[in-house]
Design brief:
Blueprint lengths: L21 E4 L12 E4 L26 H6 L2 E6 L5 H9 L4 E5 L6 H14 L7 E4 L1 E3 L2 E2 L12 H4 L5 H14 L4 E2 L29 H17 L3 E7 L16 E2 L7 H13 L8 E4 L3 E2 L3 E5 L4 H10 L6 E3 L13 H11 L4 E3 L6 H14 L1 H17 L2
Parallel strand pairs: 3-4, 3-15, 4-5, 5-8, 8-9, 9-11, 10-12, 11-14
Antiparallel strand pairs: 1-2, 6-7, 12-13
């Protein structure tokens, strides 16, 4: 979130393999119909271990036996306050199958206390897969968990100068894992032009950017993501297609537009390169977070998180097939013109997998109702729900 806050394709080919001791004969002539080749085996022939093998069964559907409500629940991530009342979130997890929570606010509690909170909420869930737990642990002013056992990481503008940022991020990620956190909604990959600097309200003002060139952002955000993955934490590259050029914050201001960024802009290329860097080697696959600004030169009609065109740029042109999450759409001023239900439906219809309702979890009830109703009435939308739920379930391992 930005509150004071795409694919590698491979190809292969297979040649003909001869089993020692087995001599193929009787290959069909050009003027004969195709028939299976016949083998004559000598006394020392090696038997074909697959001769009588049945084809492997198709992979089991991870959603087999699930209700629609359970599938839809996987598409919501709601705020779990680290301080204050948690009754709303508890009811959503216990009674409405919500599959993810976001540790929200600021906590001075030690690691074990955070883990106790996480374990208590995981115990409330009775769904087929475990509850996913996320938080915002970027560094600088954007650190939810600040108690004993959590390193006071510097802001991104300073992180990029560290001699081994990936190793540092591995330490930070290890601390998150010890607290039961699965997903860090970081790093920021927004490219802030040097001439705008701190005039960029959501990112530059708080030093959340890894420098002001594509090279520095790719290096810094890529190293942070690699460190998180090494610790077993899912990094989330945000806020696609970039918040670096806006002067207002979508959390607190409506009508935020980017009138410069295009589909082939350098800022979009940064996301492609950071995701590629964050996908190398072992570790959980990265997520991508969608901005809620409007991008006039890509789709001037809808916020990016609701736009099939902008999400399609990520999914299609960049080829990203992992989990896509919205920025917070529960309380952000930018999305208040749409009802909570419409926000959720538009996001999933656009190709998003996880709808983030972190600042105001009470909006999740209307979101869940709208998603269920739309899926019941529209088979094409129901298929999108299934596809999104499968990606989320796969991310849970």
């Amino acid at each position: 979130m930005h509150r004071r806050r795409c694919a590698v394709a491979g190809a292969h080919s297979a040649g003909r393999v001869l089993v020692p001791g087995v001599v193929p004969v009787g290959a069909p002539d050009d003027d004969e119909p195709d028939t299976p080749a016949v083998s004559v085996a000598g006394p020392h022939a090696v038997p074909d271990p697959h001769a009588d093998a049945s084809p492997p069964p198709p992979p089991a559907d991870p959603l087999a036996g699930w209700t629609l409500e359970q599938k839809v629940g996987q598409l919501l991530m709601v705020g779990l306050p680290v301080r204050g009342s948690r009754d709303t979130t508890a009811a959503l997890v216990r009674d409405r199958h919500v599959g993810g929570v976001f540790l929200a606010g600021r906590s001075q509690a030690p690691v074990q206390n955070v883990l106790n909170l996480v374990d208590a909420f995981r115990a409330m869930s009775h769904d087929p897969v475990r509850l996913l737990v996320a938080t915002d642990q970027e560094g600088g002013q954007v650190r939810v968990l600040q108690g004993p056992g959590f390193t006071a990481a510097p802001p991104a503008t300073q992180q990029v100068t560290l001699p081994d940022l990936a190793a540092q991020a591995t330490t930070w990620g290890t601390e998150l894992r010890a607290a039961g956190v699965d997903v860090d909604l970081a790093p920021v990959a927004d490219l802030v032009p040097p001439e705008l600097g701190t005039g960029n309200a959501p990112i530059g003002r708080y030093g959340r950017n890894y420098g002001s060139t594509p090279e520095s952002v790719v290096a810094g955000a890529g190293a942070f993501a690699a460190g998180m993955r090494a610790a077993g934490v899912v990094p989330t590259v945000k806020h696609f297609p970039g918040l670096g050029r806006v002067t207002q914050n979508t959390d607190t201001t409506a009508g935020v537009h980017d009138s410069v960024t295009t589909a082939d802009d350098a800022s979009v290329g940064v996301f492609r390169d950071v995701v590629a860097a964050a996908s190398r080697g072992d570790g959980p696959r990265p997520w991508v977070m969608m901005s809620t600004a409007v991008y006039d030169r890509i789709d001037p009609t809808l916020p990016a998180a609701f736009s099939p065109t902008v999400v399609g740029l990520l999914r299609g042109t960049l080829g990203f097939d992992g989990v896509v999450v919205t920025d917070d759409v529960s309380h952000a001023a930018q999305v208040q013109a749409w009802s909570p239900g419409d926000r959720a439906v538009l996001a999933v219809e656009a190709g998003v997998d996880v709808v983030l309702a972190s600042a105001d979890p009470s909006t999740a009830n209307a979101m869940l109702d709208a998603l269920v109703a739309k899926a019941q009435a529209d088979p094409a939308f129901a298929a999108k729900v299934d596809a999104a739920a499968r990606r989320v379930v796969a991310a849970k391992g």
